[in-house]
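hey all, quick one before standup. I had two proteins in the batch that finished overnight and I want to keep them in one place so we stop losing track of which output belongs to which input. First protein below, input sequence then structure tokens straight from the run.
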Amino acid sequence: MKETSIGLNDMMKEAAVHYVLEKLGIEPLFEGSMCDRKRKPYIPSVQGWHNECKFGVFMLPDMENLISCHISESCTWIQCCADIPFFGLTLEPFIILDPCEDVIYYGINTMNRSLSLFDYEWGKKIQLSFNDIINIQFSVRKPPAQNIFIFDMAVVACLIDDQKCEPDIKILESTQIPQIGCDGPTLNSKNFSLNNWMQQIGSKVSNTLNASQVRLLLHQLGLDNHMSSPGCKRTDVKYVPAVKGWKSEYIDSSIQIQTFKDEVKTVYKFQENIS
């Protein structure tokens, strides 16, 4: 009788969980197999991390009692396993940044997405939500002239109510992940063609480059480290008022200066002719 009672309780609990998931409209998210924090790839671990990246990973938080995570040998493939208390369910969020294919893969359990780096603005927060109940959020920053990525990532599950969410975990917070190989395609500036380049990235030649495409182009041409930030403005007081494209102080009228079109403005100081 005791064994029968235990089995009946388990069946009732499973039915109750199924009912809640169905009512919340999130049942498809849990149709796959569950992850297990006590099995590979999450073990062996130190402070909740099984880190197989052979290079330095900085700012990894202590996750031992909250969630178990794995960093692959590629360093930019991160997946985690978290338990959902009282429901006997698990969440398995992941993010894969592939610098060779210029794409980010991300998702949670059975919900997967991809994002081209051509369309991603470094540092922008991306959120993947399942009925506003299960959420994964991440952002990636790419410091110029450094072979690292800076990751932020969080996962939240609010199955009971939006005031009590478990798990609610910051998995990565300004975590520095090394970039191994594939520093992005480089371009030969000598034979460079903007028309050909735009066709290669799938953009029409007649289109204006968006901000992310401009950053990518400057990076591939090796010019991103030479650009000033913030950039100059032709309307700044430094450049106006101007005559023939020049703002000049103490100019000698005998000096001949070149006339510039509207695209260029230059500021020069000439020595006053005292003689």
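OK second protein, same deal, sequence then tokens:
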Amino acid sequence: AGGIRLRADIHNAHGYQFLVQFALVLSALQKNQVHSVERKLASDDFHSSDGLHGTHSTAAQDSGGRGDLSPPHLSPSLSRLLDVLVNLSQTGPAESTTVGSRGPKPINSKATAHSSRPSAERIEDVRERDSTKVKDLEAIQMLQDIFLKADNVDLQDEVLNRMLKLFSSHIENYKICQELRTVPLFILNMTGFPIFLQEKILKILEYAVTVINCVPEQELLSLCCLLQQPITAELKHSILTFFIKLLSFDQQYKKVLREVGVLEVILDDIKCHKYLSGSENSNLPQNMSTSNSFTKHKDSKDAILSSPKITGSGSGKFRLFEDEGTIAAAWDCLVSLLKKAEANQSSFRLSNGATLVLPFLASDTHRSGVLRLLTCLITEDIKQ
């Protein structure tokens, strides 16, 4: 009860916003301290021998594995502040855990003595599980704000660690937090994060799918939006690899990924390839110029308001089927989408996909992927 009153007092006094600002100030102070150390080492290097300079440079690169002198852990104050926000998110009125009975029993009965013990244990077990359940979404919102506003990768890393631990502490926590669209928002901002943070965000999403058994449509739509943006080939490869994992994990994701627009994105990318440029491109069906699934999702009331504008064909900086880092993953993803998926194959044929991929047979790089795709279409054609 005391914790609930404290949470109410913090809320009424706008304490959550203060905690966010305090976290950002502490983060900035820690970063300034790191910069001071860097300047001192740089000054020492200037007056030292080349050998000693090399030692300092190597140490700087090895520190934290991130090419700077950032400490591998947060300051105790920042770490404790994150713990406070996590605790506040789990503070709230407990759910009723009454255990029904079939009428009064004699108090001195041995049967009652034996049966009351399991009932008490069940109540305690329910209370213990309930203690880790998210009850205050505003505290989660504050963690989200800290992550997005912080200019400190160590702080961002710790926020993700806390959130993953929070999601794993109770089976319902991820679905409860979906109301805030936290993970979709993180995904849409992934381009500005280091690779290890991008991988951790995808790891959280993978946990939601494989352990919590959640079908995260908004998160997948965000990934599909991101796949069309001018992002690095490494990030596109990570997204494609994640889609392939989903398709191998559960067959239902063949339908889900088609509905969020993955198949259209891949077809649009093929259509914009240099093999199909020029006069050949003018003969393509007009219905391939846009992604209908994206339009449907974007116009729905559940659309992510903060998502970037869906870009048209030709906007990507790194083409899936032109960059060597993504070609193999793109073909693997397309084949996985079509294999044993009649609806996806029908959509692919209606989009003239089989004709589109034929010119790629002339390329040594693409031939294997095209042959696997055509083999899939031929062997699984139910109209033969």
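Flagging for whoever picks this up: The chain is about 65% helix and 0% strand. The first helix runs from residue 2 to 12.
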